[in-house]
Write a structure and sequence with these properties.
Belongs to the eukaryotic-type primase large subunit family. With 500 residues, the protein is mostly helical. The chain has 25 helices and three strands.
Length: 500
């Protein structure tokens, strides 16, 4: 797909002269100058990404690094859509950072990956106001999470490296003159934000705390909630709240740089290696994952008879429940419905032999319109093919949410697809009420559907139906029906063990 001959390489432009569009991306290399650059940029382990990256990376690195960062940003966006608090978001995102993009290290490759991936995604998401706003919001939250993961010494070192005119600390004399007002302003914050319940602890912390003096409009969101002391048009910001100021500066600069990148984007149009990757990444900027999990675990409890059992079926996502309900009522499913349900049941552990029993019984017994001979003649091969037992013998995987949403919407008499996309608000509300969601929760799910965030809606339903009675350890976004089932089944088994 990407031609990398020497002739093509020498004929290409170097985009380093364009602000926000830089770097030759053909052959991976590392120079001493490049190492020194990243040592300077990451002297405090965080960066405002002010300088364009230098050096060369491979096309594989270009795409893989961008996808890894995008996974983290998508998870952050999902958390925001699900109204997670900042602390909850940090708990969810930290494992992703450790796995995909460790930053609190001194490894050169980790720093290079972080820096390049940020600039690559700038190229992807500078193309419209909506994409720019989403990118700035997610990157700013990522910046806050990383800042909070630093030690206090690293935080101070980073702040000092910024050289922001607004980050000017007041003198000890001025602090003494305003000590009473400053302490009264932040005392409650010390108690509730930093968990300093003892008065002596708060007094001791206040004596050591430094304050920043800056125009009040720079922290207007803190002024409205009376979290800063005001005098003469200036706000006095305690150091432990400096992240609000720094993240605001980061957000403003990034928004400006995205605009600059967009203006320089036409320079890239002649490069046929990069544009397909960029289009793929930007078109994938929705709440969905880029990879499909492995769901080939065999569960001995799953067989042709237990598929409809109360114990098993209460773990099904709404799409699977709808398919099984349609199959039970009509004794038949059309092609897309058969494929979606067949792969889902395969993923939860229904073996090939048990699948033949299940589908034969579903199509032929209790009012079914087919004889066993006709079923074997018209459908048996297809179901065996899904298990890799016929034809090319491919081991097909269960459909993820992205695949399901890419299929045509169900017509009359069809049951495939995603209920959060395909059902009207009234029908979905009735179903959610039957699942014992509160009025507020139903409204929240419907709002997500209205915003076309269907996997967010599904994740919300999982949390509402599982999170109230027991702790859900894995709170990451659900982008696969079988992932929904596996988490629900695991919680169900844990609950049974605790009740014994």
């Amino acid at each position: 797909m990407f031609r990398q001959t020497k002739k093509r390489v020498t004929s290409r432009r170097n985009f380093s002269e364009a602000d926000g569009v830089s770097g030759s991306v053909i052959l991976g290399s590392t120079s001493e100058g490049e190492k020194k650059l990243y040592d300077t940029i990451y002297s405090s382990k965080l960066s405002f990404y002010e300088l364009p990256p230098q050096g060369e990376i491979t096309l594989d690195q270009f795409e893989i690094w961008a996808i890894d960062r995008l996974k983290i940003l998508l998870e952050i966006e999902s958390c925001v859509s699900r109204n997670k608090t900042m602390k909850e978001i940090e708990v969810i995102i930290k494992p992703h950072l450790a796995k995909l993009m460790p930053f609190n290290t001194d490894k050169f490759e980790d720093r290079k990956k972080d820096y390049y991936s940020h600039f690559i995604l700038r190229l992807c998401f500078c193309r419209s106001n909506e994409l720019r706003e989403k990118f700035v919001r997610a990157e700013t939250l990522l910046f806050k999470i990383r800042f909070n993961m630093l030690t206090s010494n690293d935080q101070t070192k980073f702040v000092q490296s910024l050289n922001l005119p607004s980050l000017q600390f007041i003198s000890d004399e001025e602090k003494r003159d305003l000590s009473q007002q400053l302490y009264q302003t932040i005392s409650s914050q010390l108690q509730f934000q930093l968990n300093l319940s003892d008065e002596n602890q708060r007094q001791s912390y206040f004596k050591q705390e430094k304050f920043i003096k800056l125009p009040f409009e720079n922290v207007i969101e803190l002024v409205g909630t009376r979290q800063v002391f005001l005098k003469g048009g200036y706000a006095y910001l305690p150091q432990f709240q400096q992240l609000n100021l720094i993240s605001g500066e980061f957000s403003t600069r990034l928004a400006h740089e995205l605009g600059t990148t967009y203006r320089n984007l036409p320079h890239l149009n002649e490069d046929d290696r990069l544009m397909p990757i960029l289009h793929h990444l930007s078109s994938g900027y929705t709440i969905s994952d880029f990879e499909q999990g492995e769901f080939d675990k065999q569960d001995g409890d799953i067989n042709a008879k237990t598929v409809y059992s109360t114990e098993i079926s209460q773990n099904y996502p709404l799409c699977a429940k709808n398919l099984l309900k349609g199959l039970k009522s009509s004794h038949h499913l059309r092609y897309n419905g058969r494929q979606q349900l067949s792969f889902f049941l395969k993923g939860i552990g229904l073996s090939a032999d048990e699948a033949m029993k299940f589908w034969t019984d579903a199509f032929t017994s209790n009012g079914g319109h087919l004889s066993v001979d006709k079923f074997n003649k018209e459908y048996r091969y297809s179901f065996r093919h899904n298990y890799g037992l016929e034809g090319t013998r491919i081991n097909y995987k269960p459909w993820d949410c992205r695949t399901i949403l890419s299929k045509p919407r169900p017509a009359r008499g069809e049951f495939h697809g995603c209920p959060y996309r395909d059902w009207n608000a009234e029908t979905l509300s009735l179903e959610l009420n039957a699942m014992k969601l509160t009025k507020t929760q139903v409204t929240s799910v419907l709002d997500s559907c209205h915003r076309t965030e269907y996997t967010v809606a599904c994740t919300q339903v999982f949390e509402y139906t599982h999170g109230s009675s027991r702790k859900v350890d894995d709170q990451t976004h659900i982008t696969h029906p079988n992932l929904y089932f596996e988490r629900s089944r695991q919680l169900q088994k844990e609950a049974k063990q605790h009740s014994v």
